[in-house]
Amino acid sequence: MCSLGKRGRVFILTLTGDGEHRLSPDVIASVRDALARAKSESAAAGGRGFALVTTAEGRFFSNGFDLAWARSGGSASTARIRLQSMVSLFQPLVADLLSLPMPTIAAVTGHAAAAGFMLAICHDYVEMRGDRGILYMSELDVGMPFPPYFLKLMRSKISDPKVLREIVLEGKKIGASEATAKGIIDRAHGSALETVEAAVRRAEELAAKNWVGEVYGSIRRGALPEVRAAVGLPEETDEERQNLLAASKL
């Protein structure tokens, strides 16, 4: 599951325990609940000047959907139904992060594979542990097609088509140094602790700018229109933008 802590004006969402942090329906629900609490608490405190860091305990950031749970249903058809349910449940989590009214930073302290990789790049910034851990899209190797919103998220976040080809059509496993050089993540760090501390420092710097959270979320959604549409978020209307402008008290 996960916990939600706070350091000053920085929320810290942690996937807890020493396991692989597989994204089962219960884990997805737990993360969504934590994001909703961060959104609610920030709004109650004025709605500006906050940031979120997402990290994990143990060797894994997240190893993707809970395939063991999917296969435990007793038949291939049940496994497919359960897998599709996780694909469907994860989509609104992506929408939550896209809409969250504050900057977001992923502190990737271990392996991030498949949906775990997607969870990382849903964030605005990615800090990653350099001494251990890989980024890896396993779908090609295990014979699973990509959900369309996965591909749109990757196309929006990974600008180099050759790098995208390596990830989705070669199933390449990429360490932090290479991921930094290829523009997949922002920075690599020497250890898990250094990664989290770097993410928190970045979050504190961003929170200190005291931006209006709803304006930040609006701009993020507008900057990623393909992802916004793919996860079912409506396009913002002129009236909604005018309301945000009025609320900013310019």
Strand order of the largest sheet: 1-2-3-5-7-9
Structural class: alpha/beta
| Distance between the first and last residues' Cα | 41 Å
Element string (H = helix, E = strand): EEHEEHHEEHEEHHHHEHHHH
Question: What is the count of DSSP helices, taking H or I runs of 4+ residues?
Answer: 12
Strand content: 15-25%
How can the largest sheet be summarized? 6 strands, mixed
From the alpha carbons, calculate the radius of gyration and give it in angstroms.
18 Å
List unreliable stretches of 5+ residues: none
Mean pLDDT: 94
Q: What overall form do the CA principal axes indicate?
A: globular
Helical coverage, percent range:
40-55%
Pfam families: ECH_1 (PF00378)
Polypeptide structure, described:
Helices cover 51% and strands 16% of the residues. It is α/β, with parallel strands linked by helices and 250 residues long. The strands form two sheets. The chain has a six-stranded mixed β-sheet, sandwiched between helices. The model has no long low-confidence stretch (mean pLDDT 94).
